[in-house]
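[#protein-structures] MJ: dropping Pilus assembly protein here for a structure pass
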Amino acid sequence: MLYQRFKVTLKSIARADFMRREDGVIALEAMIILPAMFWAFLTMFSIFHSFRTHGLTQRAAYSLGDAISRETVPIDGAYLTGLHQLFEYLSNSQGDSSIRVTSVLYDQSEDRFYRDWSQTRGGGILPLSSSDVENWHDVLPVLPDRERVIVVETFTTYEAPFKTGLEEREIRNFVFTRPRYAPRVCWENCPAGT
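AK: finished. structure tokens for Pilus assembly protein:
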């Protein structure tokens, strides 16, 4: 009996009958395609999450710029620390985040920008100087003489939720807003006559 079965099996192998059989094909196809489908699903989720995070940080940066532009009294370190905490909350920052707020003045006679003040919160970035902003013609709009704008820059580290090929990167936002209710937003005190 056992010998007969063995003999039949050897004959079917010799004739390559097993290559014509179709039972078990679906299981084999599933073993091949399921990992690829799973990887594609995780990649799509990671890409969607990346765009969502970019949108959140951009909206948070616009909110900070809008809040600062509505101030009529000088802002200070505690206010800026609160804005940094607000940014982390609004953007769901999971990594390191930083903000830099700069008040910029345009002088039409010299056709250049001057920094009134620049402050940072978080780590890894430095305040801007007048030489850093003097040629910002390509990043700021056309301004009338002696007009000021508040520039809010945000920096946050993005890590994809799954390791599918998206690397860690820094998300940067650059937002400028004109002061709304006062000619300028001052840092800690406003000099007389400005």
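MJ: nice. The beta strands are 97-107, 112-121, 148-158, 169-177.
AK: one more thing. DSSP finds four helices and four strands in the chain.
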